């Protein structure tokens, strides 16, 4: 009998589609308003219009890079834009939040057009300060793996994801 994983990052293919592995060594919490982001929770795009409040643990002498990505663009059944990058912040001191880092790519809120999309926050520990970086040429067909490799970031130290789908606008008659 084959062993099956109960790790939500494996079950929902975050490990596989976005990263190869996660070595959890930092606690990262994310909130959209009062809504705590937990693996697999549903977040309405209307409450995710502004960047989330994120805090990370760790030593203030250590620096981290945060990437937010959507591996399901434009649709989960045909993710031809995999990955669509929504946010990149580097040089975040441990024990703080992304507002203390350097934004490489401004936050873009979730805007799923069809199906249920996974939105992933991936945190990497840096080996040193990252100098001024140009934004990626495009938000589409971004690769978290390639980005981490290019900056020699190693494996993610924290990851959390949420699901979102297109909201139905109710019109008053």
Describe the structure.
9% of the residues lie in helices and 32% in strands. With 173 residues, the chain is mostly beta strands. The strands form two sheets. The protein has a six-stranded mixed beta sheet, with no helix packed on it. A three-stranded antiparallel beta sheet has the order 2-1-4, with no helix packed on it. The longest helix is centred in the C-terminal third of the chain and has 7 residues, at 144-150. It is globular and about 55 Å long.
Task: Tag the structure with descriptive keywords.
mainly beta; six-stranded mixed β-sheet; three-stranded antiparallel β-sheet; 3 helices; 9 strands
N→C terminal distance: 57 Å
What is the helix content? under 10%
Q: Let me know the number of strands.
A: 9
Q: Given the C-alpha coordinates, what overall shape results? A: globular
Q: Strand fraction band? A: 25-35%
N-to-C series of helices and strands:
HHEEEEEEEEHE
Mean pLDDT: 92
Low-confidence stretches: none
Estimated radius of gyration: 16 Å
Tally of contiguous helical segments: 3
Largest sheet data: 6 strands, mixed
Structural classification: mainly beta
> Spatial order of the strands in the main sheet?
3-9-8-5-6-7
Task: Give a short summary of the structure.
With 173 residues, the protein is mainly β. Helices cover 9% and strands 32% of the residues.
